Structure formats: C-alpha cells, structure tokens
Amino acid sequence: MDASRPPALAFRASAAPPLSTHLRPHLCYLSSVSSAAADIRARFRERSFVVDEAFATALEIMLALQKPLLVEGPAGVGKTESAKVLADTLDTRLIRLQCYEGLDAMSALYEWNYPRQMLHARLSESSGASLQQRETEIFSDTYLLKRPLLEALTQDRPPVLLIDEVDRADEAFEAYLLEVLAEWQVTIPELGTIRARHRPHVILTSNRTRELSDALRRRCLYLWLPYPSLEQEIEILRARVPGLSNQLADRIAHIMQVLRGLPLQKAPGVAESLDWAMALMSLHREHLDARTFEQTLGCVLKVHEDRAVVEEHQAALDFSIGTVTPHR
C-alpha cells in the first residue's frame, strides 16, 4: 500500500441534477462511460468535495460493477464524508452502520420491539384468536425494528450503505458481513429469508486499527486515501471554507504538511485543517502569527503530549508561519 498515492477529498450542498441510482440509467445520463469519472468529479466539486481522478474512477467502477468499495486511510481525510456526498449526488438515501468493538449481527440487522410485543400479547389474550395467530401477529413487520443492514436491503431504490470503521468490529462480525455482501439476503427465523429489493451502493471505511481479512478484501474494490498534498489541501480549504483568504489557506496547508511530518501520536487530518480555518475566520484573523498559532493549537492537536513534540520542532513551524510565500 503506497501512502504517496494522490488522495481525493472535500465537499458542499448544491442543487445540481443528481446522477441516477442504477447502472443503466446512470450510464445513459452520462455522455459516455469514459466521461463518468469526470462527471463524478464535477458533481462532487459542486458539493465542495474535491476528488482526484483515482477516487472518481473508483466510484465509477463501484457503481458500474455494483461491488462494495473499501476505502482505507488515516483518520480525518474524508472517507466517511465521501459516502455522504455520494448519496447526495445520487439523490438517494444514506444508511450508516457505525462499527464498534462488540457489534454483533443482530444489532446491525434487526431487533424485536419487545415492549410492544408484550403489550399486544396481553391485550390479545381475550381476543379469541389461536396461539398460532397471536404469534404470527406478534412476530410481524409491525414489531420489527430494522437496523442498518436490513434497512439497506428493504429500500425501494438503491441506497448508499456506509459501513463505517469496519476495522473496529470483531472478526466474527466481519465474517457475518461477508455473507451479507455475498448473497444480499438475510434470514430472520420468525419471518424467513429477506432478499434485497435493490443492491445497495456499499462503501466500507477503515482506519487500519487492525488488519481486515483477505476474504473481505477480495469481496471489495479497494482505494487507499492518504493525506492530501500541499496543493490539494489548499484547494480543499478554498472549496470548503468560503471567504478564506488565499494567504491564510496557504499558511494552514504548509503548517499541516509540517505537522504531519512530526512524530505525533495523532497526526491532524483534513478535518482538523477545516476546523482550524473556520476557527481563525470566526476570530477574524487574516494572518497566522506565532501568538495566534499558540492560541488555536487545540483545533489541530488533540493529544497533550504532542505539544511537547511541536515545541521540539518549533524552528520548522516558525518557518512555515513566518516566511512561506503564499500559493498562487
């Protein structure tokens, strides 16, 4: 995996006509298959999300092949946001499954509304209905609480299913997820097998807190999303923070490049760049000097020990703050 590969990033809301939500209409809408990636880049850019050609092409292939896309990279580079903007671009629903340690299949699939089931059982005791009829009523869609995976399978049009931070889930859940991605159907003992009405557009994200299985990787298309280059980060800042001066965008981007080169416990991502830019604008700071840098460092560094690392490399930061020529 090459961290030097160019990234794709950043976003905004707009009233541009949406891309279609299925392969055939999608390709009909585009002037040609070869222009699909350029069309995706343009529509993401309208929403202030700056994607490079590699990212746009990966999304194009994902839509064409209807295969999940696994996006890996450091935290804060736009993996989660890309799924949100894709759903907006396709004019479809975003369904998000946030993974965490201990997540099990039932929590991701469905639950029964036990309080309502118990209430119905008591109220129906004197109804004269048979036990079988009462059980059928209790274990029906009325009392089924759909969780993200089941919700994605039962939509009337293909949604974007975001399986976020899949690396935080246990291997047992990952194995179950493989079955769902392979068959696009689930079995609920009381209701039987439920098949997907439409195959969702699936994006999985990972911060690589643990290695994912080879089986899951083979099931997916793959994209590595690293930190942006200097020029890309400047473009992202200009797109995402209206009114930000070119000089301030340039300073922020240069400093972020320096910070990511330091041995920090938590390197700042693009999310921190954007927070910092908006904080400086809210403070009406047109220039970034050493005092302002110190006052607003909490927007960028989220671990106390990293401040000591910054102090040890103050010379490099002073250079970025004081002498860098604005990007043109």
**What is the strand content?**
5-15%
- Helix content, binned percent: 40-55%
- Contiguous low-pLDDT stretches (5 residues minimum) are 1-34, 323-328
Strand order of the largest sheet: 2-5-8-1-9
Structural features, described:
There is one protein chain. The chain is an alpha/beta fold. The chain folds into two domains: 23-107 and 144-224, Rossmann fold (3-Layer(aba) Sandwich); 230-322. It is built from 16 helices and nine strands. It has helices at residues 23-29, 36-46, 53-65, 79-90, 105-109, 114-123, 131-138, 148-153, 171-183, 214-219, 230-240, 246-260, 270-282, 290-295, 305-312, 314-322; strands at 69-72, 94-98, 110-112, 144-146, 160-164, 185-188, 192-195, 201-206, 221-224. The strands form three sheets. The chain has a five-stranded parallel β-sheet. A two-stranded antiparallel sheet has the order 3-4. Helix 11 (230-240) crosses helix 12 (246-260). The longest helix is centred in the C-terminal third of the chain and has 15 residues, at 246-260. The radius of gyration is 24 Å and the shape is elongated.
